[in-house]
Design brief:
Shape: elongated
Largest sheet: 9 strands, mixed
Order of helices and strands: EHEEEHEEHEEEEHEEEEEHEEHEEEEEEE
Number of strands: 24
Structural class: mainly beta
Number of domains: 3
Length: about 375
């Protein structure tokens, strides 16, 4: 049987030729399916035109119109989707000429020139495609593919939605804003405008870890050189093209003023050592950590009870939170930080003295270690949301 192309269904008398006669008398009929229960289905296509829709069905048999069949596209009442469909329907035996086409299925066909000598009809060049206005048309052998343009999401034909955060002209307030809108495309680059100035920033958003919605505020990947992260003095200097950067305390304070931070996430990995991966807890202790690193206070927060470990964390630091930090020249105080100022995020935010350190400074690249060498692609990243 031929599926999806029936335009008329009706009862017929058992053993009669009613189905055949009805097809012969209707110019739109190209073939018919006869249902053994005494039902006739008239089709406006043949299996040659639509071989992908010709399927086996034990309750029906298929018959092509035997005589006086009107060629597909030759009359307005029987438009084709494309010139290629006409060639397929007529077995390639059709002359170049004018044909009725309705590629979008609107019911308003147009008389269009078809060069039947060409191996393939380029629907994209001929304006015969049904792609959305915000999609691009890519010609293929016998057909075409519609793909939404960059910054748009949809099937390319019926919809291409201008998605939040995908384009410079429609920035979001934050990574979390994009996540909550349902428009995210996974981890990657997005546009946000936390200042609401009309001058958005292109940033990296982690949309998958621990619920997603994380903004990258510090990143460093070891490449064998003596480089350390650039300490940015303004949150507006965040740019996903930067491979090694970190916000200074003043920049964190500025970011928090425009985009209130509720959580921080610290993630580093040294292939020859371990992975340290923690996020601040959703409690008063975790809030104190955020306040310290965003410059709202200089009081170093208590470590234990202020964070939770991620699934890939296998660090030693997290087992000794009661020994973290330095305060007033005293070590093992059980607090975040080293008493430093602008470089709080990179200068010992987490450490157990002489054992397990997070530091990116003075040719030191420590991640839950004290003196192991770094390897290519070892990384340090900090996120905020």
């Amino acid at each position: 049987m031929l599926k999806s192309h029936t335009f008329k269904t009706f009862q017929v008398r058992p053993g009669s030729l009613d189905c055949r006669e009805a097809c012969l008398s209707d110019n739109r009929c190209q073939s018919y399916n006869f249902v053994f229960k005494g039902i006739c289905e008239l089709n406006n296509r043949t299996k040659e035109a639509r071989p992908e829709d010709f399927v086996e069905n034990l309750e029906r048999y298929y018959m092509k119109k035997s005589s006086n069949r009107v060629s597909l596209g030759s009359i307005r009442e029987l438009p084709a989707v494309s010139c290629e469909e006409i060639k397929a329907s007529e077995g390639g035996q059709v002359a170049t000429g004018e044909f009725w086409l309705d590629p979008t299925g609107t019911g308003n066909p147009n008389l269009t020139h078809c060069d039947m000598k060409a191996k393939d009809i380029d629907e994209c060049q001929g304006g015969l495609h049904s792609c959305h206005s915000n999609a691009t048309c890519n010609n293929t052998e016998g057909s075409y593919i519609c793909t939404c343009k960059a910054g748009f999401m949809g099937d390319g034909r019926n919809s291409c939605k201008n998605t939040l955060g995908w384009n410079r002209d429609r920035p979001a307030n934050s990574c979390k804003h994009i996540l909550d809108s349902g428009d995210h495309k996974g981890d990657g680059e997005y546009w946000i405008d936390p200042d609401k100035t009309g001058n958005p920033l292109k940033v990296y958003c982690d949309m998958t870890t621990d619920g997603g919605g994380w903004l990258l505020i510090c990143t460093f990947v070891f490449n064998g050189s003596y480089e350390i992260p650039a300490l940015l003095q303004s949150h507006r200097e965040i740019d996903n093209s930067r491979s090694n950067m970190c916000l200074a305390k003043n920049a964190m304070s500025d970011l928090n003023a425009h985009l209130p931070v509720s959580q921080l996430r610290f993630h580093c990995r040294k292939q020859q050592v371990r992975t340290l991966h923690v996020t601040t807890a959703s409690n008063s202790s975790g809030k104190a950590v955020v306040e310290y690193f965003t410059g709202q206070t200089d009081t170093q927060p208590e470590a234990c009870g202020s964070f939770k470990t991620m699934d890939d964390d296998n660090s030693e630091s997290t087992k000794f939170c009661h020994r973290w930090g330095r305060e007033n020249n005293q070590y093992d105080v059980g607090k975040w930080g080293h008493g430093e100022d602008e470089d709080r995020l990179i200068n010992h935010p987490i450490f157990v003295v002489s054992r397990y350190h997070w530091v990116l400074q003075n040719r030191r690249w420590n991640c839950d270690d004290h003196n192991h060498h770094a390897s290519a692609d070892d990384f340090w990243r900090i996120f905020a949301r």
